[in-house]
Amino acid sequence: MKIAVLAGDGIGPEIVAQAVRVLEALRSDGLRFELEPGLLGGCAVDAAGEPFPEATRRLVTDADAALLGAVGGPRYDMLPRQLRPEQGLLGIRKMLGLFANLRPAVLYPELANASTLKSEVVAGLDILIVRELTGDIYFGEPRGIEQRNGQRIGFNTMIYSEAEIRRIARVAFQAARKRNHRLCSVDKMNVLECTQLWRDVVTETNQEYPDVELSHMLVDNAAMQLVRNPRQFDVMVTGNMFGDILSDEASMLTGSIGMLPSASLDDRNKGLYEPIHGSAPDIAGKDLANPLATILSVAMMLRYTFDQEAAAARIEGAVKKVLAQGYRTGDIYEPGMKKIGTTGMGDAVLANI
Ligand code: NAI
Ligand code: MG
């Protein structure tokens, strides 16, 4: 296994260092991998004058997976658009064709008070949103703002081919197989033809996965159900725009930005793995950042790119134990718990592995 390690900016290097320690600890299980560091984002602008340098392109092309911390920060806000750190992130997603974005929203019972929702509604929440990432109204043509009949009109095109829908549906069905064999597909078929096709193709794809129970829900109802009774969901699959909105909504049900990992995959399960949070410049370099989202991103990498379910479960089990033992970084701290820093959290996870 060849893994590109892109620490990035802000808290990126600190949290990635802890995730790498966890990976290294798994070598004793016979897990074999090479870690290759690379520059992405602001640190790449500083060192090489561009956010996604040629050396990093080669590195991620050769690697089976990439682990990313986060990119960006106030130091880079003045740069012209093509030099901004986020261009590194968009560049890597585009170059690798990462069309499947997997975002779990897990609320550990120990953190039930972190949510803004009542703990009896969200405690034990464990859902996975599979969002299509390279199509839909965000990329459809024609698009623009034009003058027509003396006024400006704005327009975008919602478009999906059957092949694009089928490949994201397969990722979702496979993910459902690794969990509880339940999948809910979200669309707006009552109004939008594009999503009528979505529903038809997802339903057809179900024939390849007869062991997975498929349901459908309209997106407005799904948004409502996510706050009314989120635990009814297991795996959800949806298009780029609906997924953008629903995945942010779902992640905030857990209230803990420092806990949530993500994966973006191509059609051969090559992937980019990263926490959902940013570079947190306000706490960078202070040993305050929660490394668990990045450590849990490593677990996703082992599961989805390398098919190492046992190793993934081992990391997730260790994280659960650390929380049960009362260890907390500042972002998830409550009185009575044991407050620790970034490195301390890495130590605690390692002790449980
Ligand atoms: P952010 O996620 O970096 O921070 C939001 C708040 O959450 C801050 O108070 C921060 O201290 C806290 N936080 C974030 N991660 C944490 C962790 N692991 N442990 C404890 N607390 C944590 O979002 P913000 O402030 O909007 O953006 C900061 C920079 O990050 C910007 O330059 C932005 O462009 C970039 N960014 C990068 C992303 C990426 O690389 N994927 C995603 C989002 C933002
Ligand atoms: Mg979003």
Note down, in words, how this protein is organized.
With 353 residues, this protein is of the alpha/beta class. The protein folds into 2 domains: 1-101 and 261-353, Isopropylmalate Dehydrogenase (3-Layer(aba) Sandwich); 126-253, 3-Layer(aba) Sandwich (Isopropylmalate Dehydrogenase), CATH 3.40.718.10. Helices cover 40% and strands 20% of the residues. A 10-stranded mixed β-sheet has the order 2-1-3-12-11-4-5-10-8-9, with helices on both faces. A two-stranded antiparallel sheet has the order 6-7. A two-stranded parallel sheet has the order 13-14. The longest helix has 17 residues, at 162-178. The chain starts with a strand and ends with a helix. Bound molecules: 1,4-dihydronicotinamide adenine dinucleotide and magnesium ion. 1,4-dihydronicotinamide adenine dinucleotide binds next to loops. 1,4-dihydronicotinamide adenine dinucleotide is lined by residues 11, 15, 70-73, 89, 257-258, 274, 277-283, 289-290, 293, 331.
Q: Which secondary structure elements does this structure contain, and how are they paired or packed?
A:
Elements lengths: L1 E7 L3 H14 L8 E4 L4 H7 L5 H9 L2 E6 L14 H12 L3 E7 L12 H4 L3 E7 L11 E5 L2 E5 L6 H17 L3 E6 L5 H13 L7 E6 H10 L6 E4 L1 H14 L7 E5 L5 E5 L16 H13 L4 H16 L2 E2 L9 E2 L2 H11 L1
Parallel strand pairs: 1-2, 1-3, 3-12, 5-10, 8-9, 8-10, 13-14
Antiparallel strand pairs: 4-5, 4-11, 6-7, 11-12
Bound molecules: 1,4-dihydronicotinamide adenine dinucleotide and magnesium ion.
